[in-house]
Structures are given as structure tokens and as C-alpha cells.
Amino acid sequence: MPPKGKAGTTPHKRAHGEAPTPKRKPITKENKPDVADEDAAFPRGGADMLTKQERQEIEAQARAELEREELEGGGSAAGPKRKKQKKGQEEDGVDLEGSFLKSSAVAGKVPQYVELLKFKKLVVGMRMWGMVLEVTPKGLQISLPDGLRGTVALEEACDLLHKKPKDGAGAQHAPLTSLFSVGQFVRCAVVGLQQGKGQGGRGGKMVELSCRLRRVIAPGTLDRSTLVPGVALPSEVKAELDHGWTLSFGHKGFEGFLPRAQHQAAFGEGATLAVGQLQEVVVQSAPDARGVVSVSTHPGAVADALTSEGAGLSLESLLPGALVNARVRRVQGDGLLVTFLTFFHGTVDPFHLHLPGRSSTKPGEAGTTKGFTEGMKLKARILYVNPTSKEVGLSLLPHLIDMTLPSPVPLMGQVFENARVLRVDNGLGVMLELPQEGSDSCKGYCHISNLSDERLPKLDAVYKVGNAVRCRVIGFNLMDGLAHMSARKAVVEQQVLSYNDVVPGMTISGKLYSVDDPLGLWVSVAKNVRALVPALHLPDASSAQKARAKFKVDQNVTGRVLAVDPAAKKMSITLKPGLLTSKLPPIVSLDQAVPGVKTHAVVTGVKDDKGVFLSFYGNVTSLAPTAELGLPTGAVPSAYFHPGQVVRARVTSLDSLGRPRCSLKAGKGAPGAEAAAPANGAAAHGRALQVGDVVDSAVVKAVVEAGAAATAGTQPRGGALLLDIPSAPGVPARLDLRGHLSDHPAAEAVLRPLLAKQGAQLGPLVVLERLEGSGGAAGTLILSRKPSLVKAAAAGMLPRNFEEVK
Length: 806
Fold this sequence. Notes:
Elements: H1 35-41, H2 52-72, H3 80-92, H4 96-106, E1 127-136, E2 139-143, E3 149-153, H5 159-163, H6 176-179, E4 185-197, E5 203-210, H7 213-216, E6 232-240, E7 244-248, E8 255-259, H8 260-267, E9 278-283, E10 292-296, H9 299-304, E11 323-332, E12 335-340, E13 344-348, E14 377-386, E15 391-395, H10 398-401, E16 415-425, E17 429-434, E18 442-447, E19 468-477, E20 482-486, H11 489-492, E21 507-514, E22 520-526, E23 529-534, H12 544-548, E24 556-565, E25 570-574, H13 577-580, E26 598-607, E27 611-615, E28 621-625, E29 646-654, E30 660-663, H14 671-675, H15 682-688, E31 694-695, E32 698-704, E33 720-724, E34 733-736, H16 745-755, E35 761-762, E36 765-770, E37 781-784, H17 787-794, H18 802-805
Parallel strand pairs: 3-5, 8-10, 18-20, 34-37
Antiparallel strand pairs: 1-2, 1-4, 1-14, 2-3, 4-5, 6-7, 6-9, 7-8, 9-10, 11-12, 11-14, 12-13, 14-15, 16-17, 16-19, 17-18, 19-20, 21-22, 21-24, 22-23, 24-25, 26-27, 26-29, 27-28, 29-30, 31-36, 32-33, 32-35, 33-34, 36-37
Helix pairs in contact: 2-4
């Protein structure tokens, strides 16, 4: 009789062509290997002290035992007979999951320790669960587990968009912004892995994903035995009917039907779906004769749909995002080893640990295995399925179990002065608690590369659990429920972190990383934030080659933002000195382009028969007609203006489309103004000051009391101050004491004894009027110190004549 194995089974007969089993030594009491003890030890990659022949013997015995169990269970690991045996396992005390885990561990199919999901572990064909982080017209940004991020190209967003470009009807589908939304859960597949150099020569890694159901759902895994009531799966809206929508599951043979009334009952009256939109559904009824199943989109039903054993269940049919009942089999120092659905095992890494009923922000316990015990039953979500290595990752995080957004979420760029250290991972980073006023605290993670500008060889020597850290939010990982943090001083104090932090007209600094592009210069403002300096906005636009010669790569520059589009991740800035040093308020939108506003603009074009075309900030443009250029009689605009020139403009009116019309007559350097300038002397200085101009300072020359004869014109009520203006020597000026010292009468009473004396200095002041005529008061400037008027004049909001009031 052949020798028996450990479990009392007879080794199976060798098939034809199979290598003969090596002759083994007799197993005695002294050298008999104890498989149970070896499995309990669960070594982390160390030697097991067994010879190669002994290991082969143990593996053969375990495989024979597994084959016997499968034959006794009816041949199919997930068939009806196996279910029947599962019902009796509690009565007989037989743990099928435990037995299968032990046999798999002996065969080397069970991971020896828990690893984080890293880029190097990804393979093409891997199925993953993610959350939409950003939607752009060209594609999607997907948040993946363990801090990874992937991109979905337009044609890989759904099966509809993959087909459209081929038949030339790509413009007929709905935009991505109507098909996807930020925070939406999606099941996707890895279709490409790129590793190269990013902006500025930095190493870049790109995970290319596809949300097409044809790639996510494996062929042949959908049949009548799997499409049973209660099963949750992804679908794509195929067509809209009168009473609902038909849905596709990515493969031919079966379709879904979603009643309109049922969908609107879950999402509100008027709720609709767009063709091509991905939708999570739960099967309500078995397929009919045509292969159509009725489905529901109720969020509660989708989130609670539990995956159970069924015929045909395999690793290929496991979908990421599926909710399963799991049991803890090993509590490792770096995570959990669990089993689920009887014959599957997976891991839960530290970033996805959560013990129900325990605070996730308690120092020393956040993201640890404390409190978990072997045999504990938990609900978990499948994060990824690797068909190559047969690895399955799961999560216990509450927001993933409930399929909701993590809450609360801090603001992008928010600075936390006293973030508390919850966990220290040497060589990786630290987990932080971020206190939020008026709400529960949230969690963030600071990678070792963002902790300090200097190299930190051992983190636990610098950071202790419970210590406070000053840090800033630089990004988010919705899947992990964490905010990406940085404690580097330069980042914490940085002005711009994303395109959303930028507004037209603001001043920003950056570093040049390209000076050869014909479009202009490229500036790196922050990580993943870049800006273009158009050739027209170089310091010397008349000679682009000469202007480029002044710049080189890695040179620091400062400019003002011309326009920004956060959705398209585009930004342009100007390096024009005239715009950088301008004290006039910039026009950044059409709402600010009201008649009377004075500002600086850039000439973008000149036409002698029309005038000068101008551009402001925020893509606002204008035209200054030839009659409003202040040119001498017979002069042409092209002789005085050129593209790239900075001019001072005043908005005079708006056209029928709301676009501003401007005048350059009062602008500095306007040819007509210079030609019409009077001779030297007091009159010249007086005419240089226009109504609405702001005078920086003036000195009280004399005080005219109320009731006394005024030397500078008619007698003012309440008295007046006669002033000397340093910037306009010899020009008579007067300030009425009543109503023009301050905006408030109470403040005026306090200021009058302080300012109404000879030699007192006042400023800033605004010119309200210039007296005309031939008397002694002719040419006198009437000034005001009222802060409201001064502020309005500085903003160019004061009308200069009655025409501007209309």
C-alpha cells in the first residue's frame, strides 16, 4: 500500500507525461514537518529550514487534500453542494475558509506580509476602484488607493466615446462634465503605465486607466447565474426611452432597464441621465427571455448590495468596489490578512484600516492593527484585483463602505498651525490630525519628501506621536480619505499652490523653464502650475529676439496674471514694466469696465481707419477710436502707437454688446496731450492737474475764517484753507473747511484745530473743480480731503463732466 499523507489521503496517480515524484525519506516522529505550526509562524520572507525535497512533499500532500475536498464538495468551489456544506460547517465546526487558507499558504499563494499599493506593483489589466478627482474636456483625473492617481483619456471614459471618434460623430456626444462629476466612484482597468520625465526634468509616472465596461467586466462572467437579484454592477446608459433608460453592461447578451419613475423617486423629480453616463445599479429581477434585467439606482440599495457566493464566481469575475463579508485570519504588524467568499484571500494595508467604534484620530492607534483579532468578522470593499499576481486589496474605511465622500475635507492651501502627529512611518511619512473649527477633525498625510527641505534619515527621531506640526494642504486623496500635506517652510509660505489660487491682476513669481517656444516664455509658478508669457507681453515687444536674450532657464521672474482658466489649467502673465508698476486699478472683468474708470492697457493692434485696439486683464478688450487718441490734425494712429505699447486709457462708454470704448486723450504720453501742453509756469502746472486727479500732499499757506474776506475767491461758508501744492508750485488751491476735511462731521470737528493752522501738511487730496474766468480766482483749484472721494478718484470712478454722468 502506498504511503499515506499527513491528512490520511493517498497521493493522486501521476498523469501521463508528468515528472515522477522524487523519492522521499521515511517520515518519522523526529523529522515529520508540522504544517500547522509552520503556517502559524507566518515568516516574513525568512528561511523555513526545510529541504527542497521536504517542501515538495508537503506541497504534494496539501494539493491532494485540496483536490479531495473539492471532489467531495461537488467539483465546483462555489456550486450548490459547496453552499450546502457551508451551512453544515457551523454544525460540524469545520472552517472551510481556514482550511483553504492553510493549504494556500503551504502552496505559497498567500502573501507573507502586507504591502502598500505602489506604482511598481501595477500591471496592465489590473482592475481598480477609484473616485473622480477632476473632470476636464479632455479626460478625467482619478484618485486611486494608497495615494496613487490615474488619468482617463476622453476615448476611454466610456464605450460610447470610444466608438464616436471612429465614425466622425465625436462632437455629438455630451461633454465629460455632464457625464462625470467630482467624487463619483468608478471602476476602471489599467491600460498603460508610463514612466518618464515631467516638467522641469523631474521624474514622472503616469497610470493610464479606462472606465470602459468592456475592459472592466471580464468577458464571459455575466450570465443568468450571476445576474441575480441583489447583485451590484456598473452600467452605461445606452438609450433613453419614454418610460426609462436601457443600460449596457459592456458585453452583448444582456441589457438593463431602469424605469424613469424609480430613478426619479430616488434622485428627485426631473432627474435624468445622459447617454454614455456610467451608473451603478442593483439587479431587481432575473433576466427575461430577451436577456433584459430590471435594475435600481437607489444610492442606499447600491451601497448595501453585498456580494455573495454564486455559481461561476472566480477571480476574473470579482469586481473592484464590491462589498463583501470578510474574516480576519492574520493580524500583521503592517496590516491584516483576511479571507472572503470562502476561497479568496486579500490584504488590508495601514491606510485602509478602521475598527468600528474606535476613534480614527487617537494618537498611536490611527491606522494600526490594535483591537483587531483573528476570527473577527468585518465588511470590506474590494479596492483592486491583480489577475497576474492573484492579489486582492480591500478597505475598511467608513466612507468607502458607505460609498460617500470623506468628511470633513479641508480647503486646498489651508495652513494648520498645530496639526497633531498620529502615526510615524519610518522611511514613508507621518499621519496627522487636522483640527477643524466647528466640525470633526480630519486626517492628512505628509510624505517624507514634504516634511523638510533637509534629508531626514529616521523620522521617529524627529517626530513623536502627539507633537504639533505646522503644515499646509497641497492636495487630496479621496480614496484614502486623506489630505496631502507639506511641512516644508517654502511650501507653507508659498503664495500659489494651484490654478484656483490665481486671479487676474495679481502679482506672482516663478522660475523660467523654457525660453525657446515661439509662443513666448514658460514659467513654473508652483508644482503642476505653469504660465505663459506671450511674446506681446515681453518687456520689449518691438523686438522679441532682443527681449528673449535677456532671459535664461531657471531665472526668477515676477509678473502679473493676465488671464487664468483653472478648468483647462491655462494661465498667462505679463512682464511689462508699465503694468507691473501701475498704481491704477486693473480692469479684470467687464463688470469693472464702467465709464470713468482710468487704467493701463496694452496695445494689441492699430488700424488707421478705426483706431487703437486695447487689451486689459481677464481677456477684456476695447477700442479707442481715432477721434479719442488726442492726435494732431492729420496724424495717423500707426505713427504714434504700436502693438505691445502700454498706454493709459479711460473708459468713456459701452457698446451694444457691453464692450468698453476708451479714450487715450488723458493718457500719459498721448501725443495730442503733449502737443497741446501749455508753456512753462504756474498755468502749465495748473492745467496739468485735471479734475479728478489726486494730489499727494499740500501745505497750508493761510487760514480763512468764516465771515472773513477770502483772498482766493468768494467767501466760503465755514472758512477755508489756502494751500501750496509742492508738485504744482505757484498754483492757487483752496480747501473748504466745511464738509471736506472728513467723511464724518464728528471727525471733522476733531481734525479742524489740528489741520487749520499755517504750515500743516494735508494729503492725499482730490481736485474737485478748477475755477475759470478772468478774475483773481481764475485757475484756483478746489480740493477735498474726504477719504471716500479720494478713494473713488484713485479708482477713476469720479466723473469729470456732465457727459460722463449720463
